[in-house]
Every structure is written in structure tokens, then in C-alpha cells.
Amino acid sequence: MSRSRPAEHRSRIEEVRAHLLSGLHAGRLKPGDRLPSVRGMAAIVGANPKTVHRAYLALAREGIVDLRAGSGTFLSEGGADTPRPVKTGDLLSGLNRARAEAVRLGLEPEVFARFLKRALDGGLRGVRLAVVECNLEQVALFSFELDRLLGVNCRHALLPDVAARPRKVLEGCAGIVTTDFHRSELVAIASPLGLPVYRVALDPGFSRALVDEARNGPVVMVVLDRSFAPAFFRFLAESSVPGEVLERFTVVEPHEARSAFRKARGQGTVYISPAVEERLPGRVPDGFRRLTVRHHVSLSSVERLRVHLALDLALRERHLGV
Questions:
Q1: Distance (Å, rounded) from C-alpha 49 to C-alpha 177?
Q2: Can you spell out the DSSP letters for 60-109?
Q3: For a Cys-Cys bond, which of 42, 140, 183, 258 suits 49, CB 3.0-4.6 Å?
Q4: Of 48, 75, 102, which marks where a domain is finished?
């Protein structure tokens, strides 16, 4: 009798397993359902409670059931060998809601799937965009942050060059990025080439941080292109920044930085553009306060760019069948 007991136990375990799987496939049970207690299942299949306990442990190892301390035994949602961060049913409901919303917006399921693939992290990596402005400082700032946040490959371009040689400058680009100040000009240039024009904006916190420092004393800005200054100061003046505050700014390129530091007599605030960080000759003298700016480009405009670019690429790929 003792030799037959292991085989008998295995058959009882198989009975419990078969009972659960047949109930699952027949629709009597569904993923996430709570199963009978050990004693309850023992009564159902006519087995010893210890055998049912062993059966539940074996099924848990297979990923068919979840043993939750203090709660009971539940049918696993999907039968995975590793735990999932969310319930499969909840994930499916979310997917169906997203798909329904996409249909409401007029997106075909295939385009919606392509859009998600592009919009999620890494999906835009390597996409080439032309960043176009009237000065190299803004071009470099936008490119620096778009590369960091989206992973896109930015081609630097000045507005006059694009106007003079649009096909040559924009060749191989999926679109153009600029600000509202130059958008209409670039739309006229890009439309015959079939290229979309996307807009981004400077982060309001960038100019606000600089103005706050200038209210308290001189500010030396070290930038890639000094021609950035007139447009920037015009923007500040239109934002009601007093003239006496604007006069406290000194905008220089890297080779002029040491002279500007001497004129400021070792006091005030220094802002160094990330586009010239490695070009600065020597370190900032003692006595200056270094201003660090976290974001130069509005994050909301970057996210808007992410969505528009991902959708345009999805539609283009659907049209080309790639």
C-alpha cells in the first residue's frame, strides 16, 4: 500500500488540475476568479485536503493559480511564469478604450498601432529633423534638448539658407522644427516639398530665471551666437521687463567671456549655454553665481511635437506600406 500512495497522490493532484482547467476552458471559471478553499476543493473532488494543498502549490508553480496570503487562491490572469505589474483584464480594458478612442478620432487600427510604436519612448530615435531659426544659439538649444528628450537627429539650419536652397538643406529630413515667429515663412517653403513644419517654444522658466537674476544685479550670458540677443531682448521687452533690468544683461560669445567677466568686476550671475559649455576658455571666476537652467524648451511643446511627428510618420508609413 505504501508504494502505491505516491501514484495515488499524483492522480488526485491531476484530478484537481483537470477540474480547474476544464472549468476554465468551459467558461465556468475565468482568470481572476477566486477558487474554493483547500477544504472546499477537497469536498468537490473527493480528495484529502493535504493532497489539494499540494495540488494548489503545483499549479502555482505552473503559473495557473496565484496563492495570496490571507486572501485565498485565484486563477492566474494569463498563466504567465512571472508576475505582471497589472492585471491582464485591466490591460485589455485599457487597450479597448484606447482603440475605441482612436476609431472615434478617425484612425485606422493599423495607423494607431504604428502611432503607438513611434510615440512611445525610443520610437522617434534617429528620425532626422531640420531645426531652423534666425540664429545659431536657438538652433543649438532646440537641437540639444530635442535630441535629449526625443532622440531625434537634428540638422542645424539658418532661415536664410533654407530660403535660398530649400531642397539641398532639407534633403532627407522628415520635417522642420521652428518657433511661431518663423513658422509661416517656413510653411511657404516646405509645402512644395511635402514637409510638415512643427513648432516648439522656449520654456517660460528660462527667461524668468534670467530676469529674476538681472533684477538683483548684472548677468553675463555666454552663448554660441550673439545675434540671439536682439530677438531675445525684444521678447523680454514685449513681456513688460523694464529697460533698466534689460541693461544689466551682457551677451557674449565664448571668446569674449573673459573680458566680460573682468568688466563685471567679479560679481553678478553667469549663464552659460549648453551649446558652448565645452568651448568656454577657463573656469568662471570666483564671486560669480552660476545660473543652471533645467529646461530651455517648453516640455508641453516637446510633447506636442512627439505626438504630431509620431502620427505623421505613422500615416506616411501606412501610405508607403512599410
A1: 69
A2: HHHTSEEEETTTEEEE-SS--SS--SS-HHHHHHHHHHHHHHHHHTT--H
A3: 42
A4: 75
Say whether pLDDT at 80 is over 50.
Answer: no
| Nearest alpha carbon to residue 34 among 9, 70, 58 | 70
Judge if 142 and 283 occupy the same domain: no
CB neighbours of 37 closer than 8 A, spacing ≥ 6? 72, 73
CA 6 to chain centre: 56
81 in any annotated domain: no
pTM attached to this predicted model = 0.70
Which domain range does residue 40 map to?
A: 5-75
Q: For residue 284, what is its C-alpha cell? A: 568662471
Q: Check pLDDT > 70 for residue 160.
A: yes
CB atoms within 10 A of CB 136: 19
C-alpha torsion 23→28→31→37, nearest 10: -70
Cα(60)–Cα(44) distance, integer angstroms: 19
Task: Give strand pairing partners of 67.
Answer: 73
Concatenated DSSP letters of 271-319: EE-TTTGGG-SSPPPTTEEEE--S-SB-HHHHHHHHHHHHHHHHHHHHH
- For residue range 172-223, what is the model confidence (pLDDT) as tens digits? 999 999 998 899 999 999 999 999 999 999 888 999 999 999 999 999 999 9
Question: How many other C-beta atoms lie within 10 A of the C-beta of residue 294?
Answer: 9
| Beta strand 72-75 pairing with 65-68 | antiparallel
